[in-house]
Specification:
25% of the residues lie in helices and 30% in strands. The protein is an alpha+beta fold. Strands 1-2-3-6-5-4 form a 6-stranded antiparallel β-barrel. Strand 10 and strand 11 form a beta hairpin. The longest helix is centred in the N-terminal third of the chain and has 41 residues. The radius of gyration is 38 Å and the shape is extended. The protein starts with 28 loop residues before the first helix and ends with a strand.
């Protein structure tokens, strides 16, 4: 029956299917050329796409990847200045010469007298006479200032506008944006950032900070450090947010040696001497006041017959274009109402280095002077005499008083103001140190020890 397998029936043999191998015809010359052209076209297109992708991705990679790899950048270092010796220092006397035995002193004197040329008019008198007789013209004056003008123009490339923004509300609780425009000067550059010195008021209570460069490029800025004693702040700008042309045009101004500034020196004020950023003016140093007592230091003040605006940010440069100070309104007095007061920069380079690296400036809070030889001979011990303990300062809260003489900071003996300043450089905020003082009693000075927690300015 159909459908039922019969065991006696032989199985059917499988017949192989017919198999045929289909071969493609060989490529023609035209097809080969077409395929080569297509391969080259795809390769060029892929290379172009890769180039565009690299150009677009490179800034982002530099900003986020390279920046992460270089987080441990080299710290900013600012060399210290040594105070120069007075140019009026006496010269050492020459050793006396022994006369030959055959020559008498009288004969030698006669020979020197005969050999001397006839007296002539001193060169100083000749120059003074020529200057008095010369008739100066407007062209002469313009020529004298042309070189200084070029110095100011070049230095202005290092001036930026620091634009602080504060969010406030009006009487009706409506949000109001309050902003201010201040001048800043670029004082240092690293592989990651530009560092800008600007008045403290430029960043005080600011919700955001904008920095505008000489080519009108604007970018965000962040506070690196503030020094409330000097009234200055350092603002950092991420260098990867700036274009190549902006980085090339932004000039880093060198910090000069204010110890070498003398009365009568020609200087220029840049920044915002008129209250407007990128203004400038010229003048002369009228007076140099030394050993001015400030918190934990002594400094020099420069008085110049020049316009300056300390609140908006004004910086003084010498004829080499180096920053030698900044204008301050703190030390203006009735005697100097017609003068601009400038903080000399050499006394602050240690603090500027700390601020540029984001390190708080250590603070104890005394105004003092070193004990002079005359004071020491009268019985006062060598050290730093505390003329004033600043109210609510660390030393004030520890119990140190006006009239004490500091003789030791930690394990460092203090015999001069320089020793005190060197000791301060080794301190950090939060350190607990032992301050040893000598306090005058009824008959003698008594040594006392105080534990002081170092603060920050």
């Amino acid at each position: 029956m159909p459908g039922i397998n019969n065991p006696d029936q032989e199985p059917r043999q499988k017949r192989p299917f017919i198999r045929e191998k289909v071969e493609r015809p060989p490529l023609t010359r035209r097809q080969i050329i077409g395929r080569v052209f297509m391969f080259v076209f795809i390769a060029v297109l892929g290379g172009a796409a890769a180039g565009v992708s690299f150009a677009v991705a490179r800034p982002l990679a530099e900003r986020y990847l390279v920046q992460e790899e270089t987080t441990e950048s080299i710290p900013v270092t600012i060399p210290r200045d040594e105070e120069t010796q007075s140019t009026q220092a006496t010269q050492p006397s020459q050793p006396s010469q022994t006369l030959p035995p055959e020559t008498t002193e009288e004969e030698t004197s006669q020979e020197e007298t005969q050999s001397q040329p006839p007296e002539t008019e001193p060169i100083e008198d000749i120059l003074q006479s020529a200057i008095e007789e010369y008739q100066y013209t407007a062209n002469d004056l313009s020529s004298m200032y042309s070189s200084l003008k070029s110095v100011v123009t070049e230095a202005d490339k290092g001036i930026v506008v620091v634009h602080s923004v504060k969010q406030e509300v009006d009487w009706f609780d409506n949000p109001v944006e309050v902003s201010g425009m201040y001048a800043g000067v670029i004082i240092a550059s690293t592989s990651q950032e530009l560092l800008i010195l600007t008045p403290e008021s430029a960043v005080e209570n600011a919700d955001s900070i904008k920095v505008t460069f000489i080519d009108n490029t604007e970018t965000d800025g962040t506070i690196k450090q503030i020094d409330t004693v000097s009234g200055m702040a350092v603002v950092s700008v991420d260098i990867y947010t700036l274009g190549e042309s902006t980085r090339e045009n932004a000039a880093v101004l060198q910090l000069g040696n204010s110890y070498s500034v003398r009365q009568g020196d020609l200087v220029a004020a840049i920044g915002a001497p008129s209250g407007n950023v990128h203004s400038s003016t010229y003048g002369f140093i009228s007076y140099v006041l030394r050993n001015v007592q400030v918190a934990d230091n002594s400094t020099r003040l420069l008085f110049a017959d020049i316009k300056g605006n300390g609140g908006a940010g004004t910086f003084l440069i010498n004829i080499s274009g180096e920053v030698v100070g900044w204008v301050t309104d703190e030390y203006t007095s009735e005697q100097s109402t017609n003068m601009t007061t400038v903080m000399a920069i050499s006394d602050y380079k240690t603090n500027l280095e700390k601020m540029s690296n984001g390190v708080p400036i250590p603070y104890l809070g005394i105004k003092g002077q070193e004990v002079s030889t005359a004071m020491n001979e009268s019985g006062m011990p060598l050290g730093v005499y505390v003329a004033e303990c600043i109210l609510d300062s660390p030393v004030y809260n520890a119990g140190i008083q006006n009239g004490d003489v500091i003789v030791k900071l930690g394990d460092k003996t203090i015999a001069s103001m320089k020793d005190y300043q060197n000791g301060m450089e080794q301190l950090n905020r939060g350190d607990e140190i032992t301050v040893v003082v000598q306090r005058k009693g009824i008959d003698e000075y008594k040594q006392l020890e105080y534990q002081v927690i170092v603060g920050a300015r």
